[in-house]
# Entry
Amino acid sequence: MATTSDIKNGLCIEHNDQLFSIVSFQHVKPGKGAAFVRTKLKNIKTGKVIENTFNAGVKINVVRIERRPYQYLYKDDMGFNFMHTETFEQVAIMPEMIENPGLLKEGSIVEINFHADTETPLTLEMPPFVELEVTYTEPGEKGNTATSTALKLATLETGAEIMVPIFINTGDVIKVDTRDNSYSERVKR
# Structure
């Protein structure tokens, strides 16, 4: 067991039967009264950030989280299946644990965070950008843009649909931001 004096950014703790990562903290010693620690905690499963105040010297339960590299294999009725890149151990992840599952391409490398004591997967982190081929989009016509931000719908090789600029054509490879499911740039090949 650790105490509030051991708090640091990035530390994972168990609080109210949930796992949180410490985003920021501040030790406060008011002129009158007991010292305390003001923290911002990010829920590991939901991503929601809350504020919490701990009294100085209170015991906190530190949790060990491990990040492991996995390769995406396939999707079936058990969920998305991944293989550890070093041990070849396989694990199935439910779609709710993945932020943008439509952008997963077979062979993609991702990071899965595990609770080290129970060996249960907590979250899956995709790389910030993925390169995917456009399998279908309407052809863009010259002169039909009133502004430079004209967009059209495009279907990607994984089946996901995103908005792209009108100059993107079927067969182009584009870079997609996995954090907000948006077009980033066309990849030159």
The chain has a mean pLDDT of 89. Residues 3 and 59 are 4 Å apart (CA to CA).
